[in-house]
Design goal:
The complex is a heterodimer of chains A (111) and B (410). By secondary structure, chain A is of the alpha+beta class. Chain A is 14% helix and 25% strand. Chain A has one domain: Ubiquitin-like (UB roll) (Roll). In chain A, strands 2-1-7-5-6 form a 5-stranded mixed sheet, with helices on one face. A two-stranded antiparallel sheet of chain A has the order 3-4. In chain A, strand 3 and strand 4 form a beta hairpin. Chain B has 410 residues and is of the alpha/beta class. Chain B folds into 2 domains: 231 residues, FAD/NAD(P)-binding domain; 171 residues, FAD/NAD(P)-binding domain (3-Layer(bba) Sandwich). In chain B, strands 11, 12, 13, 14, 15, 16, 17 and 18 form an 8-stranded mixed sheet that branches. A 5-stranded parallel sheet of chain B has the order 5-2-1-9-22, covered by helices on one side. In chain B, helix 3 runs parallel beside helix 4 and helix 10 packs antiparallel against helix 11. The model of chain B has no long low-confidence stretch (mean pLDDT 92). The chains are: A alpha+beta (111), B alpha/beta (410). The complex binds flavin-adenine dinucleotide and FE2/S2 (inorganic) cluster. Chain B: Its cofactor is FAD. Chain B: This is Sarcosine oxidase subunit alpha. Chain B: Keywords: Coiled coil, FAD, Flavoprotein, Oxidoreductase.
Chain lengths: 111, 410
């Protein structure tokens, strides 16, 4: 998605420091003082994770820390909210994946 | 150790900090967002006077003021528990435990969700999320959007999205479900919008709002409500369309809409798919009050305040010793009112720690200011808010009488 550089009331955003960070192994560009969620969206990425149980794709929902839908692994720390965390140079961000559910599969196979 | 710990650096928390720091108290403010300002940061609306309410600038003013006082603001810190032992509060965060004899909980509001089938798809977000992405982070949320839910916040933010050059194709209602009630009933929605006064989404509703308060006229207006919707700065408000499903493979691709009657009943055979790459759900606001509950504060359900709120006095104290509340945690109102309430709370805390006539005088003035700002407020999320405030005053009276009684008995 494009960034809103010029705004009729809020003014223009210029001279912001740029750097790179890594999302699922891919190098992406971010601006200083923005959240991981904003940087990813600016790179056209809406899917932050896949649900642990169902595997369904998920993005940010509330964008202010209330819903936990945007949780990611950041520099090996799990369950970090992308909408509340400032992206940093060289940060390693990883999305959550569907977990294997052995018990559920066993039950399904026996049905 | 600080003498007062404030949870939330929104307009209420910042104003509270300034008021008590001006009386020499050492303050620490904790906030989990990346910068201070709370929900002020995304706000941008034009007042009836033509002046802009630029929340980002208002937040800057408050933050600059805190810099001249003994106030320490810690961002990126989340509070998850709070307990009282002896005369002190212990506030548990991801960065350790903070201790303080007084706490002010100013955690603001959260948005009610309206689950619509498909709402977990990437690209579906709350209306507030789109405000923050647009005005705070300055990233476009998409190219073609649909807003589900027609309320004051939705129209304020619709205007902000349009200002930033983001295309909203239409505003529709959520289909009726056990969770969405009034939000799915065109008659109820029209009633709320006509009471929104200055913020009503179009000149027609604003000017016609007196007339529209008459039930029969409102019904007639709905009967003749244009099929394609009423244009709001280019975006049609379709009160007779309801979203029944958000569809897409890995992300939002469109929304299935159906035509509804004035009561919100779906007219079968009218379903049609409309393309979109993002969807905003506007379910309204409620007080974000979990921390007060965890601390053991009693609550009262007052719908005119937005839901369950911690019991509190006009001075913003709670029945729990050393615990104060201010801002949207006490009822859903605009940023200006949250600021005025924060000042009251800050002065009440200053009074509690060093009672004197000068502070009391300021406190009385601050109380008056809250009423003044409320009466003049161009934005009112809940039309019956004043009744809600009165209801809480009565609850507090009862509560304090019971407290007296308990002290007499035991
Ligand atoms: C999404 C959204 C959009 C809004 N838009 C408008 C608008 O356009 N116009 C308008 O007039 N009003 C708007 N409001 C209403 C808004 O609540 C008030 O205008 C005002 O900002 C309330 O001020 P406050 O200080 O009570 O809370 P807030 O401004 O919400 O500030 C509360 C602060 O507390 C922090 N916090 C909460 N819980 C914790 C925790 N556990 N640990 C650490 N920090 C925490 C939050 O990060 C936040 O910064 C909006 C509200 C929301 C939720
Ligand atoms: S999007 Fe809701 S917590 Fe981050």
């Amino acid at each position: 998605m494009t960034r809103i550089v010029h705004h009729p009331i809020l003014g223009s955003l210029n001279n912001r420091q740029k750097f790179s960070f890594v999302f699922n192994g891919q190098e992406l560009e971010a601006y200083e003082n923005e959240t991981i969620a904003a940087a990813l969206l600016a790179n056209g990425i809406r899917t932050l994770r896949h649900h642990e149980e169902s595997g369904s794709p998920r993005g940010f929902y509330c964008n202010i820390g209330h819903c936990m839908e945007c949780r990611l692994t950041v520099n090996e720390q799990a369950n970090v909210r992308a909408c509340l965390t400032t992206v940093k140079p060289n940060m390693a961000v990883q999305s959550g994946k569907q977990h294997p559910n052995i018990v559920k599969r066993m039950v399904e196979e026996n049905e | 150790m600080s003498e007062i710990l404030i949870i939330g650096a929104g307009p209420a928390g910042l104003s509270g900090a300034i008021a008590c720091a001006q009386h020499g108290l050492k303050v620490t403010i904790i906030d989990e967002f990346i910068k201070p300002g709370g929900r002020l940061l995304g706000q941008l609306h034009q007042e009836p006077s033509g002046e802009w309410w630029n929340g980002m600038k208002e937040a800057e003013k408050l933050i600059n003021e805190t810099k001249t006082l003994p106030i320490d603001i810690r961002c990126g810190v989340s509070v998850y528990n709070i307990e009282r032992h002896d005369a002190d509060w212990y506030v548990y965060t991801n960065e350790g435990v903070f201790e303080s004899p007084y706490v002010l909980i100013a955690t603001g509001a959260a948005e009610y969700a309206i689950p619509v089938p498909g709402w977990t798809l990437p690209g579906v977000m709350s209306i507030g999320a789109s405000q923050v992405m647009t005005n705070v982070h300055r990233v476009q949320v998409g190219k073609k959007g649909i807003i589900i839910g027609a309320n004051v916040l939705a129209f304020a933010i619709l205007n902000e999205l349009q200002m930033a050059g983001i295309n909203i194709e239409r505003v529709v209602l959520p289909a009726e479900s056990p969770i969405s009630k009034k939000e799915s009933n065109p008659e109820e929605v029209l009633k709320i919008l006509t009471e929104a006064g200055h913020l009503a989404p179009s000149a027609l509703l604003r000017n016609g709002s007196k007339l529209m308060k008459i039930d029969s006229l409102r019904r007639m207006a709905l009967k003749y409500f244009p099929k394609g919707g009423m244009k709001i700065n280019g975006t049609p408000l379709q009160l007779k369309k309801a979203a029944i499903e958000i569809v897409g493979n890995e992300k939002v691709e469109g929304v299935k809409l159906a035509t509804i009657d004035s009561q919100g009943n779906i007219i079968s055979g009218t379903e049609k798919l409309y393309e979109a790459d993002f969807v905003c759900i506007a379910g309204g606001l409620y007080p974000l009050a979990e921390l007060a509950a965890v601390a053991g504060c009693p609550f009262k359900y007052i719908p005119q305040l937005g839901g369950h709120v911690p019991i509190h006095s006009k001075n913003m104290e709670t029945p729990i010793p050393g615990m104060f509340v201010a801002g949207n945690i006490t009822g859903i109102e605009s940023g200006k009112i949250a600021m005025a309430q924060g000042t009251v709370a800050g002065l009440a805390i200053a009074m509690a720690s060093q009672s004197n006539a000068k502070i009391d005088e300021q406190l009385q003035q601050a109380l008056q200011k809250v009423e003044e700002v409320r009466t003049k407020s161009p934005i009112q999320f809940i039309p019956e808010i004043a009744e809600g405030r009165l209801a809480m005053e009565r609850v507090w009276e009862k509560e304090s009488n019971r407290g007296e009684l308990e002290r007499v008995i035991f």
